[in-house]
Design a protein that fits this description.
The complex is a heterotetramer, with 2 copies of chain A (90 residues) and 2 copies of chain B (141 residues).
Chain A: E1 7-14, H1 16-22, E2 26-32, E3 34-36, H2 37-48, E4 58-61, E5 64-65, E6 72-74, E7 80-84
Parallel strand pairs in A: 1-7
Antiparallel strand pairs in A: 1-2, 3-6, 4-5, 4-7
Chain B: E1 2-7, H1 13-20, E2 27-34, E3 38-39, E4 42-51, H2 53-70, E5 77-82, E6 84-87, E7 91-99, H3 102-119, E8 122-128, E9 135-136
Parallel strand pairs in B: 1-5
Antiparallel strand pairs in B: 2-7, 3-4, 4-6, 4-8, 5-7, 8-9
Classes of the chains: A alpha+beta (90), B alpha+beta (141).
Chain lengths: 90, 141, 141, 90
């Protein structure tokens, strides 16, 4: 990821359509220790080829939804980040 | 008691009813979501479900807590979701609750299925007959 | 299809779910009313149900027609009521419906149980432990 | 039943508490061919010992509820009349 400050390595999980587009269900990525969620999402989208579904994605950090993409996320080494396409359980 | 599970095999409905049984309860409500055979004129052969397992279980447990704070009389709650391939007519999800009186059981099950669809990280892909591309579905708000 | 019955033996819940199955349906809702073990501090041993059989069946069928006019998408409807002695924890009534989408199944079952309690001529007597007199119950409006 | 005009014989069915008080589940009774429901109910109540539950009873004629006790009922020979205490199915 493009970043100037300190970075940590986190696990990124991909599901459903995002998994298919990324051609991967899991990846390890260096991320800044603090970053605005929408900036992070943009970087992941471009790196993993998710442009076509960008506007439908949300993020979960350590198994909790990031409700607002304008929020900042604080990362620690080994955190889990998930790319969440629209849900369709039930 | 709360019974929350992701399962890879057919869900045994009779067992769900047993989990709800309680001498102090007068009412059980059971919702079963099943795979339909059609979508916009295309014939559906099966559904393929995948989940963000740990987070899905966490969200399913949160739904249980929410139900208990809204309807404190609830006795047993069951939320089972099946993963992998689910053939037409088989259950993908079962949500059930028992309570002394009927309104709590009925209302909480309705509420829980809406919650599940909006916040539990599970996805389904419909697989169609013929050469239609399979499609990731999207729950409406 | 409408399945309406007064039965003298335990109701087989798995069979009810089979009656609801349909390839075009995505949702089933099943309500089970069971005998509770207590009423106002008295221990209930069993319930004894009696019905005005012919009229009860007629009213149960009317409920089915009412459901179908309110929710035309409904596929199968089941209304079973047990008569005679029903021990604690066993089902006295089962109301169930299946439909392509969930709201019809859930709402129609809720509506039907309220209707059954107010218009189907069936009566229950609670039989208590000890020397408490058994008592004819009365559904609240 | 006390009546002056033409009468017909009908079946009267008793249920639950009414059955217990009447000590019978079924009886045949002569009724006027036309009578106001509340008058009929009063006569049945006094004849079958149902005074204690009078205010909680309704009637069904040929398997249909009589919604309003001020309605008149028209009877034919062999009609079925039911004494209905408060329902408690479910």
């Amino acid at each position: 990821m493009s970043t100037d400050g300190p970075v940590v390595n986190v696990h990124v999980l991909f599901f459903a359509k995002a998994r298919e587009l990324a051609n991967s269900s899991r990846s390890n990525v260096d991320v800044p220790t603090e970053i605005v969620a929408s900036d992070l999402l943009d970087q992941l989208v471009s790196r993993f080829g998710l442009t076509t579904i960008r506007d439908n994605l949300i993020l979960a950090h350590n198994e909790s939804y990031i409700d607002n993409l304008s929020d900042s996320i604080l990362f620690k080494e080994g955190d889990e980040l998930a790319i969440i396409p629209p849900l369709s359980g039930g | 008691m709360d019974h929350v599970k992701l399962v890879n095999n057919p869900i045994d409905i009779a067992h769900i009813h047993q989990l709800l049984a309680d001498e102090g309860c007068g009412a059980s409500s059971v919702f079963v979501g099943t795979t339909r055979d059609n979508f916009q004129g295309k014939k559906v052969v099966s559904l393929a479900y995948e989940a963000y397992d740990n987070m899905a279980l966490k969200e399913m447990k949160k739904i249980c807590s929410d139900l208990r704070s809204k309807w404190p009389e609830l006795k047993h709650i069951v939320i089972y979701h099946r993963l992998g391939t689910v053939p037409v007519c088989e259950a993908s999800v079962v949500i059930a609750a028992s309570s002394p009186h009927r309104s709590e059981a009925l209302e909480s099950v309705s509420f829980a299925i809406d919650q599940l669809k909006t916040r539990v990280p599970i996805w389904k892909k419909e697989i169609y007959e013929g050469d239609h591309d399979s499609e990731w579905k999207e729950n409406k708000e």
